[in-house]
Amino acid sequence: VLRDDFRQNPSDVMVAVGEPAVMECQPPRGHPEPTISWKKDGTSLDDKDERITIRGGKLMITYTRKNDAGKYVCVGTNMVGERESEVAELTVL
């Protein structure tokens, strides 16, 4: 089972260069419980970047750069399929 509605969609975030940015997301209820990943501008985020942490639906960028700006989507996935959240924009000033 994977419901359609996200319990919490990420919201737009505005930060200055060098500041941390946090986006939160709660995926739809599902069985098995969906795993969470993030996409930026349609591409899966690479959490090998040590500045980026994805934990329990939170996306944290410790030290934002200009090129982190863009449109972010939270993706909830289980064996039934995947659902994408509404788009949240990260603005880096």
TrEMBL record:
Transmembrane segments: none annotated. InterPro entries: Ig-like_dom (IPR007110), Ig-like_dom_sf (IPR036179), Ig-like_fold (IPR013783), Ig_I-set (IPR013098), Ig_sub (IPR003599), Ig_sub2 (IPR003598), Neural/epithelial_adhesion (IPR051170). Residues 4-91 form the Ig-like domain. Keywords: Disulfide bond, Immunoglobulin domain, Repeat, Signal. It comes from the Eukaryota. Pfam families: I-set. SMART domains: IG (SM00409), IGc2 (SM00408). The keyword Disulfide bond applies. PROSITE patterns: IG_LIKE. SUPFAM superfamilies: Immunoglobulin. Residues 23-44 are annotated as: Disordered. This is ROBO1 protein. It comes from Casuarius casuarius. The lineage of its organism: Eukaryota, Metazoa, Chordata, Craniata, Vertebrata. The gene is Robo1_0.
